[in-house]
Records
---
Amino acid sequence: MIRAIFFDIDGTLVPFGSHGIPEEVKDAIAEVRAKGVKVFIATGRHPAWIDNLGDTEFDGYVTVNGGLCFLSDKKTLIYRRTISTPDIERVIPFSHETDIPFVAIPIDGRIFINRIDDGVRHVMKLLRVAHIDVADLETIGGREVVQMMAFGTEQERLDCGLFGRVLTDCEPTSWNPYFCDIIPKGSDKSVGIDRMIEHFGIDLSQTMAFGDGGNDIGMLRHVAVGVAMGNAEADVKEAADYVTAADTDHGVVNAFRHFGLI
């Protein structure tokens, strides 16, 4: 019996380039909630960047890849995990030596980037982010940072030693070739899921998750039933228990019907 369902946002609940959750998905979520199933968001976005879910109600939010977990009001914090101070102290001077753009995501949600290039503009358009403040990475000195983002290719990040000698207590997770999310080692969506179901008294054997990106692989393997969207990459599909149709082709609704949830 499924008692909790976790949804990635971009490419899962909200098709890329669209304005929000399709109406049929909204109706299906409302139907399973009416049956007593808890529904949650599990996203790489900070709550300050969750602006595309409309009026659909959720029972909680696993955000910044598991680093911040909130209840339905988006204010009651039940779990937090931040990037270590030594890593922050190393990445600030490093940001002055490289052309890699970095996004810093402090716990307070006042997100900023140290520089904007064409790659950043492409991702901002993809995520429908209209504006982001530009500031030197020095701005995060002394502040709690829950996640960062680094742009450029994986090879560029490897060549400069970003994770080998700078962010040694962090690891990358990615769902797009233009950038990676930077999270503390051992912190991913599955950790946030565990904290959320512990709060609600739900067993892991009663969980399901939907995702499409590389940062969803951990949670798809972790939950009882992992569902990959038809638009997901091959490695995401391999990590799932079931592959449904694409986000633009009734994927969530078809999976709900397959598992008898609606």
---
Amino acid sequence: MDKSKPMTVVLIEDDVGDCINFKDCANRRSDISFVGMTDSAEEGLKLVQSRLPEAVILDLQLARGSGSGIQFLEMLNKTNLTFRPIVMVTSTNQSRIVNDRIEELGADWYFCKKQRDYSEDFVFDTLLSLRRHLRAGKRTNRTIENVMIESPEERQTRIYKRIDAELDLIGVRAKYKGRTYLREGIFLQICAEKKTVSVIEQIAVKNKNAYNTISTVMQTAINDAWGNSAPEELLEHYTARISIKAGTPTPSDFIHYYADKIRNSI
């Protein structure tokens, strides 16, 4: 695990005290980063769709909020996500029927808040352990009735969907050919085992074009996004440093940023 990359988490919890405890605990750690909090199942789904967190900590009842943890899981299963986060359910409810239902709906782990060793640190440590397990190549496509090993083709499709979601978030428009090249470059960089020829060079050779031409087309798509998207959205979703003089990332920097970002969450 790359310890320089904190695990991104959304918290769906209606108890103010629990929210404060989770936030304080995360602030003491360098391996957890909250990217959203809410007490609503519906708003929680919107956060997952927009922030693409690696994990969700989900309170089951949301009695003081809106909806329920079960409602959130049902909505999550109906949503065509490019990347499904790890879902950690927390609750004081110890009903076997409830536990069976959340398992059917695809929750990855369940913590009873009343158990003796329950703590925010314990929840975070368990999430990080699951993250390491998934990065070790044991990630599967989950279904309600069975577990199916992900094929190389399915993995490729999932990665491309995740790339598309990231490009959509910052407004890289499909009308520009550069988006296609950036998309392919990010995928090639994610899958690269050895640093030999740059991915831009690979794309240039594949398309029988000059390196500078491919790079210029990519830069045009990037410049369009930076010129037309809301600044707050760009700052939220693209956090790498950008040259003040240039004002936008270079194609190479752009590709490496998203390759690292996506590789660390798949």
---
Amino acid sequence: MNEMNSDWNDLKFFLAVARNSGLSGAARQAGVSAATLGRRMQMLEQATGIDIFRRHARGYDLTEQGEALFARVAALDAKVRPLFERKDHHTRTLVKLSGGHWTLHALAEHIPRISKAAPEAMLRLISATDHMKINHREAVIGIRNQRPEKTGLACRKVGTVAFAGYATDTAIEGWIRVLSKAPSARWLADQIDIKTVMEANAPRLARDLALQGLGRVILPSFIGERTPGLVRVHPRISELDHEQWLVSHDEDRFIPAVRKVLDATYKALHSIIRTPV
């Protein structure tokens, strides 16, 4: 790689664009316009002599060379950042914890215990259907439905999540379909002998409609069994079973606050998904 002529600000902008997979989010984070960021990234590519990004309609993806550059710059940023951070007793370590909607919904009641176990951590909970990129530090800890294949990540299996059908009464036959690409939505769409009576664009909304007696809904058993007013009306759907993994960056897991949050979160998740099915 050619010697860089860009200053440290360009590298910080580069990290923002890479972590946000595009200019819009990076611009809000960096406090500059998207147009300015676009020009700076072009200048950075010219200075380094490599193609850093693949640009498309949805945003920016790192090329293989861009991934290598990101790893070097992120490591340097991790070393430099503490020099400019306050070190008094008020400082807490930001720990970003991401997961699916239902998982974080169930985890919420355990957050007081997790916070108590790691008082030096500032928790930021991120409910996201798309996996946050832990290797890009979009999240520090991720709750995943499969073991990641990328290197540099530490994984711990929590258990297996099961799914079943729930409604207010066994006499209810029609189903409420969630409009998504989730496996449960695809499974319901593939059942030719099942009648759909209503559609919703979000799992929480579908459950709320089921609670009004409007139809059956597929839920993770750790949600369905704990929802007052719902009973199981369809047996466990084994095709939807999936493993649950707790994932962190291989280096970040040794940070004391991160380690404490990991351990407390694992205990909470393990107790949550141990639902009889």
